[in-house]
Amino acid sequence: MSETSKNAKGNRLTLQLIILVAFIAAGVVLVLLSQQQQATTSNSSSSSALPSTTTTSTTTTLTSSQSRYRLIRVANPILTVDDFSQDPSARWTLLKDAHWDRQNHTLILAYPRFNTTGVAWLKENTTQPFTAEFSYYVGGGNSGNGFVFMFYKEGNYDPGAGRYLGFTCRPDERPCPTKDAPGYGLEWKTLYNVGGDWVNDPSPSYIGFIKDNVNHHLAYVNITIREQWHRSKVVVKQDALQVYVDQKLVLTWEAGKLGTYENGKVLSLEGSFNRTFSRLGFGASSYVHYDWHIIKDVKIYGNNLTINGLQPRWTVELRNGTQQISRTTVPEGNSQVSLDTSGLEMPLRAHLVIRDETGQTVFETSDAQEIWGGDALRLEASP
User: Fold this and answer.
1) Phi/psi at 176 (nearest 5 deg)?
2) Is residue 253 helix, strand or coil?
3) What is the C-alpha separation between 98 and 188, in angstroms, rounded?
4) What integer pLDDT is reported at residue 340 of this predicted model?
5) Are 164 and 198 within 8 A, CB to CB?
6) What gap in Å lies between CA 220 and CA 63, rounded to an integer?
7) SS3 label, residue 20
8) What is the distance between the alpha carbons of residues 186 and 179, in angstroms, rounded to a whole number?
């Protein structure tokens, strides 16, 4: 065989060997890819079988050491916990100059500029007793006019500027298609309006409880408002009102009673709350005098915990460790109870204990649960 033939044969063997190695390598790659795909599919299947840690349902279950019953949270329509870290448009209706400060996570109602007015209505209405907590700042301008927290309020009007605080229309500003806008408000007022038809401001710096218009004061208290952040808590009961600022009770009102208290007075003898209207929100305005009027960290919740699915003469206890917070008994002919939670810090970390008429425990939460005023719970047999 010639040298040329030997070289050609060697080259063919080399080429065949390269092709064989390539096929083997491709096979190995395919096997590895197949195994990886199977592992991925297996992991995906395992993950989808795990219980979800979040839910879009409005119902949640309060866990118990008992297996016979479970307690379901079925509703809390007014519950609002908003730190304004996200766009509030799903929960609030902002009117006029009111706007969301995305960077600082606040709600700005009015700001240091001539003639600014803003209103923020909560989209969830209520005519029930409730508690509202919020932080506020007023300042940075030349002192005016203030802001108002509104409730049980008619909302169909054009919010007026200046001394009207967005609480009603301002007739000297423009014709008011709907002049009257009945309802209640707590005004944080920083400008002493006197003379003309607005002579009723009781002092230059005060919190006032008003009805139907900014001139009708039911009660007030002198207080420093401007140039620092404060935290307020407003407790609206069936026929009474309490206002706290920085954890101190500063204003009280009770239907049918007049009175004088530290640095304040009840000015008007009124009956029970008129709950014809149901809007709830904030308003603020500036005119010639102006300031920043800013709200943040809002919590709104009910004043009662309701439980149904019970039997007559059963008892329900709300406990914080060994301390009993509240206790009630189911009346004859009823299957529901309501526990007063007004004035308590929310959310509660508490135990619920339900006992039958003999004193035997029917249900007890296995550990401290997060409970809000306004929660509606239902006891039912475990599946």
Assistant:
1) -100, 110
2) strand
3) 17
4) 93
5) no
6) 45
7) helix
8) 20
What's the pLDDT at 39? 36
What distance in Å separates the CA atoms of residue 65 and residue 55, rounded to the nearest whole number?
23
Asked if pLDDT for residue 21 goes beyond 80, the answer is no
Tell me the Ramachandran region of residue 247: left when phi exceeds 0, alpha when psi lies from -120 to 50, beta otherwise. Answer: left
Q: What is the CATH number of domain 60-77+304-381?
A: 2.60.40
Q: Decide: helix, strand or coil at residue 295.
A: strand
| pLDDT score recorded for residue 176 | 80
Nearest-10 Cα torsion for 363, 367, 373, 378: -30
The residues, any chain, with a CB within 8 Å of residue 50's CB and separated by 6 or more, are none
Tokens 């929960």 found at: 91
DSSP string, 228-255: S-EEEEEEE-SSEEEEEETTEEEEEEET
- Rounded CA-CA distance 8/6 in Å is 6
Residue 208 burial (CB < 10 Å; 0-12/13-18/19+)?
buried
Asked if residues 135 and 230 have their Cβ atoms less than 8 Å apart, the reply is: yes
Helices (H) and strands (E) in the chain, counts: 1, 27
> Tell me, what DSSP letter sits at residue 277?
-
For residue 41, pLDDT over 60 is answered with no
φ/ψ of 23, rounded to 5, equals -60, -45
Cα 256 to chain centroid, rounded: 31
Q: Would you list the domain boundaries of the chain?
A: 60-77+304-381, 84-302
- Dist. CA 158–CA 169, nearest whole Å: 5
Least trusted range by pLDDT, from 52-61, 187-196, 205-214, 299-308: 52-61
227/200 Cα distance (integer angstroms) = 25
Q: Is the pLDDT of residue 51 over 90?
A: no
How much is the pLDDT for 116? Answer: 95
For 84-302, CATH number?
Answer: 2.60.120.200
pLDDT at res. 200: 75
165: amino acid identity, one letter: L
